[in-house]
Model the fold of this input.
Amino acid sequence: MECLPEHTIDFLSNDYLGLTRNFKIKSLTIQTLKEWKKFGAGGSRLISGESCFYKNLEKELSQFYNGTSALLFNSGYNANIGIFSCIAQRKDSIIFDEYIHNSIYNGIRLNFSEKLKFKHNDLQELEKKLCKAQGTKYVVVESLYSMSGTLAPLKEIVQLCKNYPETFLIVDEAHSGGIYGPKGEGRVVELGLEDEVFARIYTFGKAFGAFGAAVIGSKELKDYLVNFAPSFIYTTALPLAVLAQIQAAHRHLINSSSERETLWDNFRYFRKSTSREKLEEYIPSLEGPIQVFLLKKEEELRRLEKKLRTNGYGVKAILPPTVAEGKSRLRICLHSFNTPEQIDKLLALIEYHLDRK
Done:
């Protein structure tokens, strides 16, 4: 692990909206801490960690995401371990996209159900797996994939799931929450699919600039997870500082769209600049803040990452086993706080240091 210099220009983090540095959210969080005497949990929520603040925040979150119920977890990893380790029974099936996050995969591994993987965003193969699957079927996708920058074809997947009885769709909105939708509710809400999705998982350590996560679903799902999700039951509840920051970030986004608008302006500018620098053959057309620069030669990719960082630009080389052999890439994250000049300089540096041989 490497500590980046303070002056590094961030094309690296998941802080898409710059909310980790938002003074209004910081002030709201501090104000909440002043108003409440107890700031630590002292135990799990099933013992001493439950509070009125927890309950009220979960109600706010369910309303924000146009859902029925919300259950907070200590992190996105905990949420995925929790739901996927217990949701299916031994004679059921979990069908998942090959690009799902490691935390989802690890949760699925803990389950005793049948496990079926389909090629990334391949609807034909998904249908083949649905035909093969036994029992209750759970289809698992991410709305925005963190290492490829690709979007799941959610409308088509929803329609496909409808064709098979006892099939439920679970969508991880970790990288789309805060960015898509009228207030940042994610892709499912943006597409009007709330009533068609069994469960949604939102992580607050990315666009929301905080920590923790929530599962949005029915009251029955929430009650089930409270009683059977091990990563919920057997962990200390979140401290007030984290809960207050989650609340402040969501309240801020209800009243402010400027960060999202600037982020999408930067996205459009990046795509135009990519064309101007003649880098289209390396940077595929992706519709979101996660952009990738594809380069099969790992050593060349490492060298390019080092050159960019030497010039003060933070990017990340993604190498096997995180991605498959021959799929190495630079992961470029766009933010609301990046400037057009920074985008131009980043792409110019890539073009200058790129060995096209």
Q: What stands out?
A: The radius of gyration is 21 Å.
